[in-house]
Design goal:
This protein is α/β, with parallel strands linked by helices and about 350 residues long. The chain folds into 2 domains: about 5-125 and about 300-315, ATPase, nucleotide binding domain (Nucleotidyltransferase, domain 5, 2-Layer Sandwich); about 130-295, Nucleotidyltransferase, domain 5 (2-Layer Sandwich). Helices cover about 40% and strands about 20% of the residues. The chain is built from 10 helices and 10 strands. It has a 5-stranded mixed beta sheet, with helices on both faces. Strands 8-7-6-9-10 form a 5-stranded mixed beta sheet, sandwiched between helices. Strand 4, helix 3 (about 90-105) and strand 5 (about 110-115) form a beta-alpha-beta unit. Helix 2 (about 50-70) runs parallel beside helix 3 (about 90-105) and helix 5 (about 165-175) packs antiparallel against helix 8. The termini are far apart. The structure holds 5'-O-[(R)-(carboxyoxy)(hydroxy)phosphoryl]adenosine (KG4) and zinc ion (ZN).
């Protein structure tokens, strides 16, 4: 019988300190996420120094809890996976240093995981039978792309944003509407109460990539103009119109790429994959005979279970790091082409 592989993963790329134990890349045995959102909300966004400091304060307890929640010790673990990029360098360094220390002390192999590849793997935890190839719409605070997942380790980026990421635009629009950080979930909630009365333009640009900076500026100008003229505008309508413009173009491009590639399975990943309008739009593909995969809501945002899943597939390929591993604030997907 094949031996079960248990990966302990650590994630600290932004404002969540997380650790998880996952069996065979698909089954979550424990998943601890300690969010710092309440602290950063006071400042209207993530303060890098405060994020690093808080990771340092709690990383040992979070890792200990991930082990004790499944009655494990390090002796039950086959490898330690850690997010080494992309993200805030100081925050990443806390997880990377801690993972290196664990590996040094316990003689376990170290696996260096790309955060974005981790987001895609959240789907393997929600759908244990999901296998490549499939198309994945990746929408987070730092990335927006349609990726062909050719194999567990091979990605083909078909199109991506030329400026801001989708989640970044959600956060900036939320800020101009006076909503608290993080803005994405707030806009999601408010949009349900509004109508798409503002004719904001699409995010798809002429070469098929995405641009969010124009849409973001259009929304900001609309709100500022109204404020200057003393005209009251419906924030719910702005949220609804913005959401429609931010998402419809992505979904249309996703459909085009599905047709071009002839793939019959589509997945979404990243923080914005929690958006209810996006989920309902992508769900519509099921009526056209497409299998639609969406991570369960608790796995859309940053977590270590997705890092453990990615780590498992790297373990299978013998892709190990050594103790010279360093944090990488910017990191492309394996095989990602430079922007056109
Ligand atoms: O993947 P993630 O947790 O962190 C990165 O890797 O960037 O994504 C965070 C982003 C934030 O911009 C946040 O506002 C957005 O995901 N987000 C949402 C929703 N939930 C989180 N955006 C729209 N609707 C949501 N429900
Ligand atoms: Zn993320």
């Amino acid at each position: 019988m094949k031996k079960d592989i248990h990966i302990l993963a650590i994630e600290s790329s932004c404002d969540e300190t997380a650790a998880s134990v996952v069996k065979n890349g698909r089954e979550i045995l424990s998943n601890v996420v300690l969010s710092q959102i309440d602290i950063h909300r006071l400042y209207g966004g993530v303060v890098p120094e405060i994020a690093s400091h808080n990771h340092i304060e709690c990383i040992d307890k979070v890792v200990q809890k991930a082990l004790s929640d499944c009655n494990f010790t390090l002796q039950n673990i086959d490898a330690v996976a850690v997010t080494y990029g992309a993200g805030l360098v100081g925050a990443l360094l806390v997880g990377v240093s801690f993972a290196k220390g664990l590996c040094q002390a316990s003689n376990l192999p170290l696996i260096a995981v790309n955060h974005i590849e981790g987001h895609i793997c959240a789907n393997y935890l929600t759908y244990p039978d999901l296998q490549p190839p499939y198309l994945c719409l990746l929408v987070s605070g730092g990335h927006t792309a349609i990726v062909k997942v050719v194999d567990y380790d091979k990605y083909d980026v078909l199109c991506s944003t030329v400026d801001d990421a989708c989640g970044e635009a959600f956060d900036k629009v939320a800020r101009v509407l006076g909503l608290p950080y993080p803005g994405g979930p707030q806009i999601d909630k408010l949009a349900k109460e509004g109508k798409p009365t503002f004719p904001f333009h699409s995010v798809v640009v002429s070469n098929g990539n995405f641009s969010y900076s124009g849409l973001k500026t259009a929304v900001i100008n609309t709100v500022h103009n109204a404020t200057q003229k003393g005209v009251e505008i419906s924030k719910a309508d702005v949220a609804c119109s913005f959401t429609k413009s931010a998402i419809d173009g992505l979904v249309d491009r996703l459909w085009q790429e599905l047709n071009k590639t002839n793939l019959k399975t589509v997945a979404i990943a990243g923080g914005v994959s929690a958006n209810s309008y996006l989920r309902s739009r992508v769900q519509e593909f099921e009526q056209k005979g497409i299998r639609v995969c969406m991570p369960q809501l608790s796995l859309c945002g940053d977590n270590a279970a997705m890092i453990a899943s990615r780590g498992y597939f790297m373990f299978q390929e013998g892709q190990f790091a050594d103790l010279s591993l360093n944090a990488q604030p910017t990191l492309k997907l394996r095989g990602e082409k430079p922007r056109r």
